[in-house]
Amino acid sequence: MADMTASSSEPEASVQEGVKTKKGLVLATEVVLSLVVLICNAVSASWWHGTWNICAMIFSAAYFVIFVMELGKQFSATVLQWLCIGDLIRAVLFSILYLISSLITIGLMVILHFHHLHVDGAGIAGVVFSVIASPVYAYDAYTIGLQLRSSRQPTHRTQLFTSV
Questions:
Q1: Is residue 22 in a domain?
Q2: If you write DSSP's letter for every residue of 105-120 in order, what string do you get?
Q3: Phi/psi at 162 (nearest 5 deg)?
Q4: What pLDDT, in 10s, does the model give residues 101-119?
Q5: Which residues have a Cβ under 8 Å from the Cβ of 17 and sit 6 or more positions away?
Q6: What pLDDT, on a 0 to 100 scale, did the predictor assign at position 46?
Q7: Does residue 148 form part of some domain?
Q8: How many folded domains does the chain comprise?
Q9: What is the dihedral of CA 151, 153, 159, 162, to 10 degrees?
Q10: Rounded to the nearest 5°, which phi and psi values hold at 98?
Q11: Contact 101/130 with Cβ under 8 angstroms?
Q12: Which long-range contacts (CB under 8 A, 24 or more apart) does 98-106 make?
């Protein structure tokens, strides 16, 4: 991405520039998918499996803010290294949680359907968006892992959380 102009110091312009990058787009997609799954689970009868979803949305939003506002430039190399490792753990953990919870919920819905009990549409939509969110988090984990493996120097790690 080209260097930012003086007019892009405003928060709105910074968010627009940050979302144009691959990392920013993935983080924004994670936040939106987590919010949609949270809403679907909140109005569904199967709300129990999505309580950890709030954590997914909060952590993804926090990393999105760090990335978009380019706060990674202000951290020391040690803190930035732990921030990158935390981002990798977050992406792997929530990818696995989305996959497991959607598979369990699909199984429960099939059982309810065979017993001629009602399966609500919001629960089905929550499962569909969970199935979509799992590969998005997995892709984020994959790209973070590639960047951490390819760059062993602390100066290259700042590229994970800066849009430059």
A1: yes
A2: HHHHHHHHHHTT----
A3: -130, 150
A4: 888 888 888 887 777 777 7
A5: 1, 4, 8, 68, 163
A6: 64
A7: yes
A8: 1
A9: 160
A10: -60, -40
A11: yes
A12: 98/37, 98/56, 98/130, 98/131, 98/133, 98/134, 98/137, 99/130, 99/131, 99/134, 101/49, 101/50, 101/52, 101/130, 102/127, 102/130, 102/131, 102/134, 104/49, 105/46, 105/49, 105/130
- CB 37, CB 47: distance < 8 Å: no
Residue 55 lies in a domain: yes
> Distance between CA atoms of 99 and 108, rounded to whole angstroms?
14
Find the Cα–Cα–Cα–Cα dihedral 32, 124, 53, 65, rounded to 10°.
Answer: 0
Domain that holds residue 67: 10-160
Per DSSP, the chain holds a count of helices (H) and strands (E) of 6, 0
Do residues 105 and 119 touch, judged by C-beta distance below 8 A? no
Q: Which amino acid is at 31?
A: V
The whole-model pTM stands at 0.79
Say if 5 falls within a structural domain: no
Q: Which two tokens stand for residue 57?
A: 């949305």
Determine the Cα–Cα distance for residues 96 and 29; give it in Å rounded to an integer.
Answer: 17
The conformation of residue 73, written as its DSSP 8-state character, comes to G
